Structure to design on (402 residues):
């Protein structure tokens, strides 16, 4: 169509989950809509850029210059830390309502295969934070794959204090709610077998 | 999460084809990515807002202050006008490569049921344009529904010159390419029956 249009489509297509058709559709929507539609959208982005930042403690989203709503909540248990890969995981766990401790958001996982090391994820303040909070329990809520595994190992082996014991667990793996053995993939089934527990009538 | 975050998600969710989950995912992607990701995205929007406008002649997208690439192309047949509902339709017809005339983009259809009248679509300069170009043929490439029908009727009955004849057609309706009679809906089949043509061996 024209160069600025193609640039806009490319910028939209770079967003997660958007293909070429969706990006074009959104670009046209923004450009041919009411006069101020594009301006309003741009303004929302500017406000967000100005007012939202990462929580300096845990890496969650927070008001710029402030701790996030979880870290700032005095009723949370500061001695329990749940390590997650990304914000969406934190949101999902919060929605499930089964965690009353704090979080640490890595914004990624270590990947030996893709050369993503500790410096590529949010671990800079991790040891310091564990000390400062007096953490006694760490739950790794990381994915059931090699990268999740590598990340747990790295943290457990190099970033925990040597002078005291911290209970370290990984969330359970197995059949999801409503899951059917017939249709479960082999990784899930292997995990589920390993995670088998005594059954009491 | 926080008010500016919710505002950003709401702005994204207002884009066509994005639900709550996709909007959240994009918001997080923009906010926790490399420092300048959000700023770059905002800049693409600003450039687009500044440099792209509607073509003053046909309503297609164009460089601000210029006619669109179709209207500016001297090799196109100015006396044939194809009326489309939206930019994407123009793009689809251009990609099919079967039209050498100009376009007129309505940015909507008349809808008696939803109270969308002629003043809600791009028809202000239509009669004037038809005169100025000396149009001899108009093809309505509008959808096969009541709104498409109403729009064709309105234009044909009120916006065409009374002092000369203009050939007015509507694109064919029927089975799409590869279409199967068994699975075609009744509107398509009715249209296809009405549009039946002599078959020669």
């Amino acid at each position: 169509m024209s160069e600025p249009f193609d640039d806009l489509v490319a910028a939209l297509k770079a967003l997660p989950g958007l293909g070429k058709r969706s990006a074009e559709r959104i670009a046209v929507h923004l450009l041919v809509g009411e006069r101020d539609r594009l301006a309003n959208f741009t303004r929302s982005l500017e406000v967000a850029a100005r007012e939202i930042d990462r929580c300096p403690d845990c890496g969650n989203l927070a008001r710029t210059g402030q701790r996030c709503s979880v870290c700032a909540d005095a009723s949370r248990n500061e001695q329990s830390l749940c390590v997650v890969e990304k914000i969406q995981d934190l949101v999902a766990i919060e929605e499930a309502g089964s965690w009353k401790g704090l979080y640490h958001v890595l914004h990624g996982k270590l990947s030996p295969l893709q050369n993503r090391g500790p410096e590529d994820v949010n671990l800079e303040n991790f040891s310091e934070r564990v000390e400062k909070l007096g953490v006694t329990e760490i739950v790794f809520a990381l994915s059931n794959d090699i990268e999740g595994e590598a990340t747990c190992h790295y943290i457990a082996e190099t970033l925990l204090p040597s002078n005291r014991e911290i209970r370290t667990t990984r969330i359970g793996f197995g059949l999801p709610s409503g899951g059917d053995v017939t249709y479960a993939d082999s990784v899930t089934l292997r995990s589920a077998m390993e995670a088998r527990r005594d059954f009491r009538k």
